[in-house]
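hey so u asked for the seq, here:
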Amino acid sequence: MTDGILILDKDEGVTSRHVDNQVGHLFGTRHVGHLGTLDPFATGLLVVAVGKGNKFLPYLSDGRKTYIASLKLGTSTTTGDPSGEVLETKPIPRITDRDIADLLKTFLGKSMQVPPMTSAIKINGEALYKKAHRGEEIERKPREIEVFEISMLLRLGSRIDFLVTVSSGTYIRVLAEDIAKKLGTVGHLTALRRIKVGDIDISKAKKLSHLSTSDLLEPTPYVDLPHFEVNDYGHTRVLNGMKLTFPSTEEKILVTYQGKAVAIYAYKEEDQQYHCFRGLF
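ran it, structure tokens below
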């Protein structure tokens, strides 16, 4: 198999693009992509697609992501992480573990977050971090995020380790800065590890240094859509892009044949049938 996905455990100090390049070299292809970028200082779960596996990326579940984060109180940096220069130092108020646990709960639910200048969001065709490297500051629009779970794991002096599950697009470094601010001081992330993306868990991940071509996975089980199996006749219709009827009115479904994905189909209300949206074969 030369098409599929890989579940990797990224090391600290390497970019997601570097991982893509290494995977591409191993599989002899340039057609490599990933689901949800990880900053160089961050470690953990990175889902990488190879070959036709890239067609599946938009349909893999990434609505929720879980991280273990380390927050250092008393010092902020220009990037909100260890790669930046010290921006400000501030005393740390006397706070108890109970104070921290109670405060973390206030972050549960939906809120608005302003993306950092160090993000990869593009404005006028250029990523924000490139503008930041030139010393530019661009106004960013707040975006809605949601914190589904947050709890303290450990406290050692000025360091707080916490577990957090958030919606896609949430910047943990900004969340950490906001936590420090609510505690009456400043702070920055010193470590960040992603342990879950959707239903994919870090326990299934392989290190890039231990990766082999046999680790490539069939993407079908990971597609976050209702699955509908077709017979030989239905398979022929799918290959010809023809309409299909299923006992469903879901907006989009995954059509499979012999257990493997062949196409995404979209429901049309006007004729109450499913139309081919994207082929995956």
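Residues 60 and 223 are 5 Å apart (CA to CA). The mean pLDDT is 92.
lmk if thats what u needed
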